[in-house]
From TrEMBL:
Transmembrane segments: none annotated. Residues 389-649 form the Trafficking protein particle complex subunit domain. Residues 1327-1336 have a biased composition (Acidic residues). It comes from the Eukaryota. Residues 681-1274 form the Gryzun putative trafficking through Golgi domain. Coiled coil: none annotated. This is Gryzun, putative trafficking through golgi-domain-containing protein. Residues 1-22, 127-148, 316-337, 1283-1377 are annotated as: Disordered. Residues 134-148 have a biased composition (Low complexity). Residues 1288-1299, 1340-1354, 1363-1377 have a biased composition (Basic and acidic residues).
Amino acid sequence: MTRPLLCLHPTPPRQKEKKGSLLPQQMDVYPQELVIHEAPLVVVSGLAGRDRHSEIPPYPLLNSGPHVSSSLPALEDDTALRLVDCFQKHDATGLWGRRPPRDGKAPQLPVFRIRLVGREYWLPVRKANPPSPGASGSPTEGPPTRVLHSPISPLSPDSPLYPDGTVSHIWLRKHQSLLPAVFVSCHQLNTETSDAGLQAVEDNRMIEAINGVKKHFLSTSTGSLTAASAIGSEELRSSGHRTKFVAIIECERSVMTSAQIDDRLTYIRRGTGLITNTTFFVIQSNTSPVEQEQFVSSFLATIYPGAVEYYREMSKHSRRKRNKGSIPPPTIPSSRALSSQGWNLRYEFKLGVFAEFRQEMDVAGRNYETAYEKLLVEVFEATSSWTERWTEARMLADILAIRIVRCYLWVENYVAAKQRWSYHISRMKDVIDRRGKGSDTYGFAAWLSRWNKCLADLLHLANLPVFSVNISPVRTTGLLDAEPPTIYFRPDRVGERLISQELLHHPGFYYLAASEWTKIREARARRIDMDNKDLYDTYLCPPPHEEREFQHATLQMSYLALARTEFDLRKQERMVEAVSYQLAKLRMLKAPENPSFWVEALKDLRSIASRYRREGWWGLLEDVLWRIIECGRHAGDAGSIVLAEFELLCKPVFRQITSKKYDLGKCLEGVDTSNVKPTIVARASDVVNILSVSYSFEFPEVHAGQPVNSQLSITSNAHPSSAPLVFSELKITYEGGLKTILLRHDPSVTVDPSPSVRIISLQSSLHEFTEQDASGPLHSPTSIASHTHLVADTDLSIAPGQTKIYELSAILREAGTAKAICGTFGMVNDSFDLDFVVMFGEDEISSAVHPLPIKNINTTPNGGKGVWWKQDADGKITKRPLRSATESLTILPRPPKMEVFPRGLKHGVYTDEIVKIGLEVVNAEDEDAVVGVDVRILGWPTEEEPEITWLSPDGTALPPLPSLHPLGSLKPSEHTTQYFTFASPRIPAECTLSIKLRYTLISDRETTTEKVVSVDMPITAPFHITYDFSPRVHHGPWSDYFTIPSDASKPQGIVQRWCLTANVQGLTIDDITIEGWDLSLQAVAGAAECKISTQARKAITLSQNQTANIPFLLDIHKHTLEDRSPSNIDTTLQLRWCRQSTSQNTTTTTAAPVPRLFVPLREPRVLAEAKPSATIPGVIDLAYTVENPTNYFLTFALLMETNDAFAFSGQKQGSLQLLPVSRERIEYRIVPYQRNTWVRPQLRVVDRYFNKTLKTAPGLGCRGEKVGVGVWVPEEMLAVEEEAAAATEEKAKGERKEEDSDEDDADHEQDSGSSEDSLEYRRGSDEESEEADAEAGEAVQKEAEPKEEAPKGEAEEEQNPTQEKKEEAEETKEGEQ
């Protein structure tokens, strides 16, 4: 039994070495010690039981070495067992260690080879035993000088290297498994008793045990692991080794005993001379597993520098010995002593091994390369050919090459690694051809096979980043797919041209190469000449007589299995199938010895066949199918045999074998199917189909209720010598309204197979499935007949090269789409049941088979994929081309002849009204029809659907129905009108009225006909409303601080009047009448009360785009005089209107939201009012009201600007003083000079304290301007004589001169008069207030009248902004003067 090529297991079974030989007894392996990766050795003593301890490998004189022992028991508690698991988790034993990342970002993690031992341990001896007294180098010499060396040194007689050996794997075993860099002794502090005396006794026993173990290892005065100066001091060593000693103490701490435990640990540490956290470590037993894992990681990181320093000192020792240049004297002299070149080779190899222990792989690689060159140039050439030492040197060359390649792979120098691997092959081939038995032997082929597997194992176990493969079952998705796995490494160096053999590939290629060389080895082994057995190379392979009996196929199968796994991981599907094909053929070769190989080979061949079908490799597929038949017969797989026989019938694809009898029904003869009758289901897209099947509808579109004609065409492409195919049934499945058709084979209607093309009409034979059909046997177990099937009996046999066309017909009742999905061919006999599914219209892209080299007779010269077969009266069959998608059919609805007309939409639909619409339905069919109607309104602006109410002929509402509203039966040309109503929404919307008529004719009640009519029904607003909110003068008295209120419950603050004017513009098509309007108060914010008043209501008629003004007076009364906060008023305007075009006088109420009205702070303001004079014709009375609602005394400067457009009488300039919460009225009389125009009097009111000009707000009879207010002058006011106008002007000039001459006196008199006038104004009679309110009401009523076109003069004046600016500039200049 052979072991693996490379010993990858940490503890493989050991063998007893033969004295004087480096080769193990099993010749087909490399020694484990020579190939594994080096890592610092740590021996942990005193943990767990013997079953968890590491195996101690054999070593010469091991029991004679220093004995490290302790009388204390080993630790076997839970904490100790978890520590064992943690240490074993960090063990790096194997072909590869923990390779650090090359980016340099991550730190170097400590790498150790960890061995667990008990309380007894033997260190290897440093010197061999002296030879027997009678032994000597020469009989003529005197007593020899006894210089003792290592028991594995070439200088010791008992060494396997004596006298001329170079390197032994036993030396590597010594440093890998026996001589540690760090020795760890574990102990437990006794906390079971609280007696101080007993505790002191136990502590002294532990100190004695630790010191007893410590004496065998290196120690210094400080105990430091990194004290390199102490190395080499003989007085500090007892065993002669440089191993570091570390102690771990396990204890159980608690809050109560923590101080006592610390004292005891300090006592033990001082008694042993160790240093805390350097050579003396403490772990608590009551810690969690995570904390123990952290302790072990921290512990290993602490001792790692000392371990690396240990191997660095070993390297220095070897380098010093190499630099001496002399050969040490042997214990017993010999004439075949190792040469100086051999000693240099030993030192270079040791330096490389110690560098590898330190994880310095680049340094190790250089030492190995030097040793390799010395071996091949100096040692190899000086060694006798094909001796045992020559074979040892050859193995050492392999080991050095393996270690060099591993060093290059470690540093990611992949090109150099591949070149060194190939270089070793060429060097060994040259040496064997020159000095050996040649490279044409089976031994060299075996070595090449093993050498390829070595590289493959290295790459596989290394898991290099360049060849890493994501084997996660979850596939990540993104905008771009992940990069495919790397097949071979492409160097980034520019200008260096490398051939493919010099590039490093993934392991699969080298496993495949190992298989190929094993195949060559087998071929060479068959040519062995047993008479000349000494002419063959037996390096690491059996001798010739055993080689001929060697199971090469088994070894080749293992290599192919490994290669297939690697190719499969990298999605190299073609390589996977190629390797699987070789593996299947080998398994078939070995199947007579192992019958299970038939099943495994059949599984591989199925996968291979699917790939070859998809790629179109018909020659290879033919061989695979014959092999599937062979494997299926031995494995008892009837399904594989039937499908393979079915595919091999295809004449255009596969060759016809004359000795083969092609009969699908008898293909299972000789196969036992008596227990279970096989049932096979296959798809035509998964196999090579010998049938060309197409399905065609005659026309792409038909109407519901009309017959649908179709044809099913079947052509056989079987070999001419094959038996006809006889199907038991054929089931055609549809998608849509067509029923499934089931054709059954009837032998009594078998027709003559001589015509190559034959049309079989089944239009009259198809009938509904009946109970009589159900009483007959079902031919196929997968066929299920029901009342939804159409059944017919016909001939379903088809001869090779024959084409049969089956004509079918059906009637569709519903509109939609139909499609022929698939045809299922059922074949039932005594041996098997086969269901062969052919999908109609399946494209070549979705098929799993490459396009077959078959000419389809159902194609047309112009590229069409469907034809319609037709037979004329003479029996001649012709075909005409059809469209591309012949298996699809569109069933159009029956053409509706019913008409529907909506009534009542020409006047438009407006918001907030009840809409009544009538539907006039006319029956244009030739027969009676039962009609139902459904109405839906699409685009409704709210989530709630509108509630539609149908009306009876007398106008009453009908109860709602869940389905269509029935209109009853209508005779031909009869019409009826049905009304319905719904409430329109409150907001406008673009809606559509969808009317669906669904009716059935009396003659065909199964076919339903629909007609959908959509009518645009925009719902618009009847009005467009804008608002004007302006102040007005409230003529009632104000509250003051000097009057005691009679009713304290009423508001005591200032009352102000505002006017809200709604400008209503009609948007309706017809005239509408606004019957009434209201302004409802919703909310008042700001500690005030609001009273809304309006004049008597009078209906307003609006035409389209006509505007009417509706004013409302709002009196805002503050609660207190001290309240100066602004107020907000929320109101809603409600308009009641009706249409004039309709007979029904239905009133609709529209609620229009009003923007929030803002009443500003209590600040001084100026209000202007104007009206024609009632006493003097041609004169306008203009009044300014200056209000002071504040709590301060205010003084205002007044200035009336002169104007060329009018003359005025009144105060031109002066000052006005207002008490808190008071107001003053200033009156002017204006005589305009022009007619039909606007005059713009400008009264400047300036607050003297704040130097702020108050803006005049237009009141009744005024409009706002940029500066001041505007007053309209009507034409009838100008009936004044010119003389009177002139006199008025002279009077005005005299008054101006008088004011200019005595300005100070006038100001004083004006101030006094203002105060008196103010008091008189406030104390005015109620009659004057009522007259003012009446006048304001008349003005409001006039504003409510529809506006007419503005006078021409106003329009012209508005269009001349330059003249206005000029006038304003002149007035400003005069004011400044």
